[in-house]
Design goal:
Blueprint lengths: L18 E4 L3 E5 L4 E6 L5 H17 L6 E7 L2 E7 L4 E2 H7 L4 H16 L9 E2 H12 L5 H12 L6 E3 L8 E4 L4 E4 L6 E3 L1 H18 L4 H5 L3 H15 L5 H17 L10 H14 L9 H4 L6
Parallel strand pairs: 7-11
Antiparallel strand pairs: 1-2, 2-3, 3-5, 4-5, 6-9, 8-11, 9-10
Helix pairs in contact: 3-8, 4-5, 6-8, 6-9
The structure holds adenosine-5'-triphosphate (ATP) and magnesium ion (MG).
Adenosine-5'-triphosphate (ATP) binds next to strand 1, strand 2, strand 3 and strand 5.
Length: about 300
């Protein structure tokens, strides 16, 4: 059979393009009136960029409100993914300009997340988020005692299997708000997969509440808002997502999954020196998930229905 020639990757230059956003993994530029490009840091492999673009495409097909994704291109030594330009600002920027809207937007985020979790996905097209976390536990095992490994595994093993779509990094800087259409849209879908809603709620609890407990001055750097505002938003997400009687328990459950995610950070940081991992774990043993008094039984016997 004749071999179909591979389509050559487009090469683009961002010289002269306006930079409209910068995150942990790359920079976002406006290409023209219709499109933007997310240029990943040099060294980020092509597969990672392609994977993020594929997730965004599959998400849109599954009914997730997000930008249309176009192609993956080469930009100098880096790769970039081209997306539809959303005529919107981040929800974080909108709330910063309109602080009186924080509670209402928190409620809308709660509804948005609940609606997202109602979407069941084709498990062949998305990654199993619980599986990813269990893999992280296995990679951490050599630094942990048997009891600590078991405690981490237990909170993931006890989740019932779900096909709900999980954003993975749900916070106001990864949502765009169009004032014109009054619409909220998801961006930054790199961590999207399927699983139990608590995997999402835990991740949100971590960035909106747990990080700021010890270093509130760093919250504006991550979220673009003061810690007291992210707390207000988080409370409103929970109050909209859950029935009134369930909120207290839901908060405890979200914290358990947030603390567990935090404990597994060393394995997602490339080449973290062993001494740094041990120092990090000392902190987690002193006041985090690995502390003997940190109780995971609410996760093992939940009464909240999802
Ligand atoms: N489709 C889009 N249309 C308009 N602006 C966008 C779009 N996608 C991203 N942006 C802008 O670029 C910024 C960064 O985008 P994104 O969150 O995808 O990347 P990132 O923050 O680098 O990733 P990470 O959160 O993993 O560090 C956003 O906050 C937003 O301001
Ligand atoms: Mg982002």
């Amino acid at each position: 059979m004749e071999k179909v020639p591979e389509k050559k990757m487009r090469e683009l230059s961002v010289a002269g393009c306006e930079m409209i956003g910068e995150g942990a993994v790359g920079k976002v530029y406006r290409l023209d009136d219709e499109t933007i490009i997310k240029v990943f840091a040099p060294g980020v492999p092509l597969e990672v960029v392609q994977e993020e673009k594929n997730i965004a495409k599959n998400a849109l097909v599954a009914g997730v409100p997000t930008a249309i994704s176009f192609d993956v291109v080469k930009v100098g030594e880096s790769y970039g993914a081209v997306y539809e330009m959303l005529r919107a600002k981040t929800l974080s920027a909108f709330i910063k300009e309109n602080p009186e809207c924080a509670a209402e937007m928190g409620k809308r985020m709660g509804r948005l997340l609940k609606d997202l979790h109602k979407i069941d996905v084709d498990t062949n097209k998305f990654v199993d988020v619980r599986g990813l976390f269990k893999e992280r536990v296995r990679r951490m095992e050599k630094f942990l005692s048997k009891e600590e490994t078991d405690k981490l595994m237990a909170v993931y093993d006890c989740l019932d299997s779900r096909k709900a779509i999980i954003h993975g990094d749900f916070h106001p800087k990864n949502i765009m708000y169009s004032e014109k259409t009054d619409e909220l849209l998801f961006i930054d879908l790199a961590d999207m997969g399927f699983g139990h809603p608590l995997l999402d709620l835990g991740a949100t609890c971590l960035v909106m509440e747990l990080f700021g407990r010890t270093t509130p001055e760093r919250t504006p750097h991550f979220i673009g808002l003061e810690y007291k505002t992210t707390l207000e938003i988080w409370e409103n997400i929970l109050s909209e997502y859950f029935d009134e009687n369930d909120i207290k328990e839901a908060k405890i459950l979200a914290e358990i999954y947030g603390q567990a995610k935090f404990t597994l950070f060393p394995v997602i940081i490339p080449h973290m020196p062993k001494n740094d991992v041990m120092g990090f774990l000392m902190g987690a043993r002193a006041r985090g998930f690995l502390n003997k008094d940190f109780d995971i039984t609410p996760a093992l016997k939940p009464t909240v229905k999802f």
